[in-house]
Amino acid sequence: MSASERAREMVLSAAQAAADKKAQDIVIIDVADQMVITDAFVLASAPNERQVQAIVDAIEEALVDLPEKAKPVRREGERSGRWVLLDYVDIVVHVQHTEEREFYALDRLWKDCPTIPFVDRALVEAE
User: Fold this and answer.
1) Residue 107 DSSP class
2) Which residues are registered as beta bridge partners of 92?
3) Considering only CA atoms, which of 85, 93, 78 is closest in space to residue 7?
4) Of the candidates 3, 5, 26, 24, which has an alpha carbon nearest to the alpha carbon of residue 118?
5) Strands 91-97 and 40-46
6) 103 near 50, Cβ under 8 Å?
7) Cβ contacts of residue 79 below 8 Å, gap of 6+?
8) Confidence tier at 101 by pLDDT (50, 70, 90)
9) What is the pLDDT of residue 79?
10) Which ranges of the sequence are coiled-coil (predicted)?
11) Which residue from 14, 10, 36 is spatially nearest to 23, judged by alpha carbons?
12) Other C-beta atoms lying within 10 Å of the C-beta of residue 99
């Protein structure tokens, strides 16, 4: 069983919002077959705490603007701004400082899970 349509809509919106704020290394991992508590992870990184916070704000705004509004049920790490986790139940968003992303390597931890393709619309429009 892979991520639900709702989870796919949410992760793609979150990924685009992150891309719009110049997030780096955006990856969407479908963890539905491995976890019962969520369907997918969005991983994104930024080189400084201010940009991490800007990306988090943009993601929250984008998901609340969906036809079926989504608000995080839990938010962690905002104070330090090095790794902010947004838990939407269906999806979990991790916005990490570049150093945390390299150190914790969530991409590697979940490497056996399929990814959900994402292409930044700014790159498509530029072609």
Assistant:
1) H
2) 41, 87
3) 93
4) 26
5) parallel
6) no
7) none
8) very high
9) 84
10) none
11) 14
12) 12
Exposed / middle / buried, residue 87 (Cβ in 10 Å: 0-12, 13-18, 19+): middle
Distance CA 47, CA 39 (A): 27
Among residues 29, 39, 86, the alpha carbon closest in space to that of 58 is found at: 86
CA 54, CA 112: separation in Å to the nearest integer?
A: 30
Q: Which amino acid is at 8?
A: R
Give 71: exposed, middle or buried? Use CB within 10 Å, 0-12, 13-18, 19+. exposed
Q: Assess contact for 28 and 40: CB atoms under 8 A.
A: yes
The CA distance from 67 to 90, in Å, is: 16
Q: Rounded mean pLDDT of the chain?
A: 95
Token code pair at residue 90:
């269906």
CB 58 within 8 A of CB 18: yes
One-letter identity of residue 50: R
Higher pLDDT, 25 or 3: 25
pLDDT digits (tens, 9 = 90+) for 20-45: 999 999 999 999 999 989 999 999 99
